[in-house]
UniProtKB/TrEMBL annotation, chain A:
Keyword Flavoprotein (UniProt): no
Highest taxon in the source lineage: Bacteria
Listed InterPro entries: Bact_solute-bd_prot1 (IPR050490), SBP (IPR006059)
Family: Belongs to the bacterial solute-binding protein 1 family.
Gene3D superfamilies: Periplasmic binding protein-like II (3.40.190.10)
Annotated transmembrane regions: none
Localization terms from the record: Periplasm
CDD domains: PBP2_TMBP_like (cd13585)
Database matches in PANTHER family: ABC TRANSPORTER PERIPLASMIC-BINDING PROTEIN YCJN-RELATED (PTHR43649:SF34), ARABINOSE-BINDING PROTEIN-RELATED (PTHR43649)
Keyword 4Fe-4S: no
Species in which this protein is naturally found: Jiella sonneratiae
Name listed for the protein in its UniProt record: Sugar ABC transporter substrate-binding protein
Automatic annotation (TrEMBL), chain B:
Record function comment: Part of the ABC transporter complex MalEFGK involved in maltose/maltodextrin import. Probably responsible for the translocation of the substrate across the membrane.
UniProt main location, coarse: membrane
Residue ranges annotated for the ABC transmembrane type-1 domain, each copy included: 69-259
Alphabetized SUPFAM superfamilies for the sequence: MetI-like
Subcellular location: Cell membrane
Keywords assigned: Cell membrane, Membrane, Sugar transport, Transmembrane, Transmembrane helix, Transport
Protein name according to UniProt: Maltose/maltodextrin transport system permease protein MalG
Taxonomic lineage: Bacteria, Pseudomonadati, Pseudomonadota, Alphaproteobacteria, Hyphomicrobiales
From TrEMBL, chain C:
Domain (ABC transmembrane type-1) ranges: 64-279
CDD domains associated with the record: TM_PBP2
Topology of this chain in the membrane: Multi-pass membrane protein
Keyword annotations from UniProtKB, A to Z: Cell membrane, Membrane, Transmembrane, Transmembrane helix, Transport
Species annotation: Jiella sonneratiae
PROSITE patterns named among the record's database cross-references: ABC_TM1 (PS50928)
Similarity annotation: Belongs to the binding-protein-dependent transport system permease family.
Identification of the protein by name: Sugar ABC transporter permease
Amino acid sequence: MKRTIASLALAASLLASASAVAQDKPYEGVTLRVLGTQQPWETELQKRADQFTEATGAKVVFDLYSLTQGIQKVTVELSSRSPAYDLVFVEASDVVRFGGGGLLEPLDDAIAADPDVDLADFLPATIDANRIDGKLYALPHFAATQMLYWRPDLFQAAGIDGPPKTFSEMMDDCAKLQTPEMKCTAMRGKPSTSENIWYWTQFLLGFGGSFVKDYPDDLTPTLDSPEAVEAAKFYAKLLTDYGIPGSVSASYDEVVIAMQQGDIAMAIEGAPLAGRILDPKLSKVSGKLGFAVPPGGPAGTFAPFTSQAYAVNAASKNKQAAEAFLIWATSKKTMQDIAANSSFVAVTRNSVWNDPAFIKAHGYDFGHGSFTDAYRDTLATADPHYRLPIAEFRPAADRVGAALQEIVTGQRSAEDALAAANSDVERIFRRARLLR
Amino acid sequence: MILSRREKFVCYAVTYLFALFLLAPIVWMLSTSFKGQLAIFQKPPSLFTEFTFQNYAAVLSDPQFLHAFWNSVLISSGTVVVSVALAVPAAYGLSHLTGGRRAGFLSWVLLVRAAPGMIYVLPYYLAYSQIGLIDTRIGLILINSVFTIPLAIWIVIPFFDAIPHEIEEAAIIDGATRFQTMTRIAIPLAAPGIASTAILIFIFAWNEFLFALTLTRFEARTAAVSILSYMAYEGTEWGKVAAAGALILLPVLCFSILIRKYLVQTTAGGVKG
Amino acid sequence: MHSSRLRGYGLYILPTFLVLATITIVPLFVTFTVSLFLIDVTSGLPPVWQGFYNYVSLLSDSRFLNSLVVTAELIFIPVALQLLFGLALAICLRERLAGTRWMRILFLLPAVIPPAVSGLVWKLFVIPGAGGLAWLSGLLGIDLDIDLLSMPATALATVVVASTWVGTPFVALILLSGIETIGKDQYESATLDGATWWQTHRYISIPTLAPIIRTVVVFRILEALAIFPIIFVLTGGGPAGATEPVNFYAYVTGFDYLQIDYAASMIVLFFLAMMAFCSPFLVQIARSAEGGAR
């Protein structure tokens, strides 16, 4: 009898310790599959995923592709409602269609249960961009925008005080800054939603144009409007007269390199790339830069904006573990760690922006505008609908991107090229029943 | 024929310049695969700057690449088995048919083979997502067979045609069944042809890209598609890409040298007017 | 005796026939059906019948019309070049000049390289300023630092060159095997009659090869768009659609934009056009592959 009791006690204690282990590592045996893009954030996160595994027991496997391929894979995987991936990469413009289609898991309950998330700490625009009808579908790690990088030394030499505030000032400044040896600027010219359209849309909106008549009520495309034509002509003139050779097909990489090499006097380019532009090992100009909000047009300033985030696949079989990973990955601690110890700067949390270690690593200020201030001011102008959150935006914008290239290379006049693109966009929208 | 000096010169020029054109890009890939990341973007470039195995070491220690490579081996072998098993009896049967029916079947087979792969991808994608064949080796073997069965039928038929019918007749008179005639006489006689067909199918399946790209994720991803994961958004790792490319090239290279005699003959066999 | 002997061989063909029919004809039918519905896979709403709406839209889709032009360019230019170079090479290789035997093996190479790797090989070769092309031109004293893949015309030219690179050697080998069946005496008697080297080939080799040439051309045309992986790796169809043939646009539409019904309509239209163009030749080829009549 005693022995029975003893063995029962032993069994009980074993059980207790087993459940203690289970409590310790609630997701032991779970493997999380992440489908995403190979960018600096992911590279850094991958290095730190072991910490999450140690804490929770869940293994994390990354399946990473180039940006376009990654987005394409995510679209296909979500639409087939496959549980193969637990977490997927999403840009803000895609969240509406995925979330609205019930393909993403709302995160509100998980966030409510964990006070450490502190949503108020995120930059508001990045959260708003991922919220539909009051439900949050993704936790952003990357606030993408463009700011003005300028060379105070060159501006001073040309007798210009301060960076341009408007497009016309920018054009005038270029006329003064450009010398036979040095071009004024560089910009993305490669035709694609993520390249020339990402850059040009700020001109379109700044001159008072828009992609459609009245989002979301009337989606009739208005890319042949006088404002759009003006924006295209301005872009083409800036590019052909003041852009580096090869601008017609330049992507962000060429722009960054031109800036690093000191080949140009100013550029409107991605704030997240600051890490590369300012790295003294890569850049010849790291101490010579000023930072400002990009210039605007008659209708105002519209800096490019989107957020990149990860979301939980609604078809996932490990939703709890996936949510836990997402919360961990975008937590103050993880984000602080990554931001302070890598070139990744496009963080989405205010607490990181104010973190002394971060400011020490990235708080560039060479006497002509501080990087962090300019970044925050730029994001304040962010329009969550810089990219229209409709499924057909990508095919439509790709088409407009091709038209822009036709204009820049002189194959067609701005009026003709945009009229043709507009009728194609109209057809794309009509096909999707967005128009009657 | 005796060539004049000028004609000789033209011929030497044509062949050697073309050989250079043919080899230069491949040699460049091989040289890239032995370079470090910095040397790859060195301007002006040079053919051999440094010699490192680090790219090969990195690729060969990448479990994802090894997994994909192994998948390619299994999928290609599976495609060979399925296609040969189905194509050989059909080719045997067809070689005994004449006129309209044979020509009809053969032209149908040829039309199927000629359809663009894209036309199959969409329905297979839809069907596979319904029945859970996405990202499976079986699924890829099946869709590969769409192209390899017709290919195999076309190549094997001439080998059966070439068997003198007296031999088969003698066997039947000796009491062999038709099936025994096929397995014991026709197939052994056509064995070299069947073997080279098998290798050709292996190469086809090994090289296949579109289906593997659209119908796999990570479990059944093939080697050809795995290269893409080294071609990322920022800073493509060209050294690794080149090393992976060279490794993927290796098996088909060995195989095609093995069947070089048949490679032109067999394919030309279907082509001779 | 003859016909009774033939009966029963159908049994050997039937299983393969059924399998092949299932895995080919059924999908073709599905693709066509899909093209007649509006399908939104993201929302999961049920398909809506729309008849030939997609086909009508295609006619006013300038990106589609552009892809037709690109398709024609990517089929006919490379095939013409392959034939031209293939013929020249076959004629020269026939002479068995010193140090050309190994080329017969070398020439097999591009035909068996995985197309994705071919795309890669060319991508590495044209890296601006640092690739093999820059290296070669550097040897000739030219400083070539341009991005060929960034401009529409040069990107298309690069794809055409890659496609020619892949196809030519094989065309050469097939034509060579055809030329070598022509008796030496034919050439010799022509030479005795005073024909030049060029004339013997113009009046003997090319006419004799004509049927082979025709067949090779049909097959190369059908194979021309198999360079999908090359385009995928090399240019991604860009810039601005300059290297985007129909099958690539269909891929982008189906798998990037997820308009699978629209993609289906494109590929069906393309398939029909291709068949209308090639099937007479294919049937003829199948008929001439006789020899089974024993």
